[in-house]
Amino acid sequence: MRYALPALAVIAGAITACQPQPISQADEEAIRAVNTTFTAAVNAENVDAMTAVFTSDATVQPNGMPGAVGTAAIHKLFTDMMGPMRTNLRTSVTKIAGQGDMAYVTGTYHVSWTMKDSTQTAPPAEDGKWITVLWRQPDKSWKFASDTWNPNAMPAMPAPAHAARRH
Known about the structure:
- The chain has one domain (23-150): Nuclear Transport Factor 2, Chain: A.
- It is built from four helices and six strands.
- It has helices at 4-18, 25-43, 47-52, 71-82; strands at 54-61, 68-69, 85-99, 102-115, 126-136, 142-151.
C-alpha cells in the first residue's frame, strides 16, 4: 500500500501530461497573423501567397462552387476566382479555439469587387461568415487545413409560378 499512492500520483501525472492543452496566447497571435496574411494576399491579388498559408492536403470549400483539395487545386481555384476581378476583402476574427496542434477560427467578412474589364458589372458587395481549421506544422507555424465561407444573404428566390386559370 505504501507504494500505491506514489504510483497513482505518477500515473495521474502521466495522464494529465498526455491531455491536449488549450492553445496558448502566442498560438492565438500566430493564428491571427495567418488570417491577416491571407487577407492581405487576397487584396494584393497574390495567389501564391494565398495558397502558401494552406497545408499540402488542405480543403477549400467556397460557397456555390466545387471544393478544391491540395495546394495545386487551391491555387487554380483562387486563380480562377481572382482572374476577372480585383477584390477588397475585410475580415474579422470572432473566435479562436483549439487544443494541441489543432485550432479553429470563426469570423466575418465584407468583400467588394471591381471588374478588371470595365465593361463588365461587378457582383454586389457581400457580407458573410467563415470558418477555418488550422494545423500546427513541424516548424511550430500554423496553416489552414480547411476553409469555407458563405454569405449572410439568402439566395434570391425564384419568381412564383403563375397559377393556372380556371375557365
